[in-house]
Amino acid sequence: MKRFHYVLWVCVFLLMCLDYACIGQSEGAKPEKVYRIVYEVRPNEWYVEQAKLWKKEIEKNPKNPEAWYNYYNANRYARFVETIDTKEKKARLEKIIEDMGQAIPGTYEYYLLKFWNSYSLIDVSVLQQAYELAPERVDTYYGFITHYEFTDQEKKLKEFCEKLYKSKDIAPNLVDYNYNVLMSIEKNAILFTNGDNDTYPIWVLQQAKGIREDVTLLNQSIIRAGNEYLERKLKEKGIRIDLGKLPESKEKEFLTELTKTLGEKYPDIPIYFALTVYEKHIESIMDDLYIVGLAYQYSPERIDNLALLKKNLERNLRLDYLKHDWYDDSYLATSLVTHMNLNYIAPMIMLTEHYKASGEDGRAQQWKNFALDLARKAGKEEMVEEIEKKCL
User: Fold this and answer.
1) In what order do the strands lie in the sheet with 190-193?
2) Given pLDDT bands bounded at 50, 70 and 90, which one contains residue 24?
């Protein structure tokens, strides 16, 4: 079995924002802190409402940095999935930054949001101004980490990964999840990742804790930011290919063609994709991807991924955190991590079916119950029903 074919159970990373129940404009609503979507995701209507509420706070006091911070984030995340790249939205965010420059110039919030709005992997001078005003605030750390990774400044990269680790800003269960991604793959592998929540925790684990430093992480957005970066990362593994021959028009074509080229020219270097990588980026090679844990392994030739699944889930992965959460239900990022944990269900069901076919009903029931528990924790009753039907 190459992969489990229930799309609902794989790649739920940021698309979870579509799963929340819609809410309307509530009478007497109050402005609430608008966190970055790496912490929590709310329904679109909530962001629209919060944008209006924080706008009123700004009208009361234009010098309120917190109001501007939340107003910007609410506008940034409203209709996040559908309109993140529209000219209208970009113009609206630019206008907010311009207005902030008039109302609260020289503040941490102004410099931070100005950097976010015109994000650069090379020029972090504006981010540096924010950091100098409040070096203890962790929002700046992420931008520095990406910058130092992209510009090959190893000491500074390690320094800020250690700062981020010590800050405890990344939810513990998110660290556990990404530890298990790393434990799903072979030594000296290349791992393609999708976004913040499957990239920064891995960098932190590698740089701050020395865990699986043999793995070369390639974020699918960053590798498109410049051939020089990708060439350097590949050269570190002894890989030399002509990137100019790869298609540049569409991101998904670039990623899949890069994978095929690496597989052909360097078959001894294992290639993996985090399960959180959007399927649209890898759809043309899905028949060559095998679930081996919290990652797909790329192989044009058939492999026994069930044996790898058994080894990883039963020996290599740390699963206790899925059963025992030491925090209450209100801690930040709980909902997000709970939805990310749905990515465990596909490999668990594959093991369930394997053990059932082998006549090991007790072990089959164990993995079925584990999968059901994860679905119930995420409030996915339709998924519970599908698991029950699939594993009769």
Assistant:
1) 216-219, 190-193, 271-274, 295-298, 289-291
2) very low
Q: Which positions ≥6 away from 165 have C-beta within 8 Å?
A: 204, 208, 209
DSSP designation for 245 = G
> Average pLDDT for residues 22-29, to the nearest whole number?
54
Higher pLDDT, 210 or 42: 210
Q: Phi-psi category of 311—alpha, beta or left, where left has phi over 0 and alpha has psi -120 to 50?
A: alpha
Three-class DSSP category at 290 = strand
Q: Which of 39-53, 61-75, 129-143 has the lowest mean pLDDT?
A: 39-53
> Rg (Cα) of the chain, in Å, rounded?
22
Beta strand pairing status for 271-274 and 289-291?
Answer: unpaired
Is residue 81 within 8 Å of residue 15, measured between CB atoms?
yes
**Per-domain boundaries in the chain:** 7-13+170-390, 31-105, 121-166
CA distance linking residue 27 with residue 121, whole number of Å: 42
The Cα 274–Cα 268 span in angstroms is: 19
Question: What residues does 193 pair with on adjacent strands?
Answer: 219
- Asked if 269 and 189 touch (Cβ cutoff 8 Å), the reply is yes
- What gap in Å lies between CA 59 and CA 80, rounded to an integer? 25
Give the integer Cα–Cα distance in Å for 233 and 186: 18
What's the CA gap between 119 and 141, in Å, rounded? Answer: 14
339 Cβ neighbours under 8 A, 6+ residues apart: 12, 16, 19, 378
DSSP 317: S
User: What's the confidence (pLDDT) of residue 329?
Assistant: 54
pLDDT at 80: 58
Structure confidence at residue 217 (pLDDT): 98
Please tell me the distance from the alpha carbon of residue 331 to that of residue 333, in angstroms, as a whole number. Answer: 6
Sort residue 11 into left (φ over 0), alpha (ψ -120 to 50) or beta. Answer: left
Mean pLDDT computed over 231-245: 93
Return the bridge partners of 271, or none: 190
Helix axes 139-150, 154-167, angle to 10 degrees: 160
CA distance 261 to 92: 41
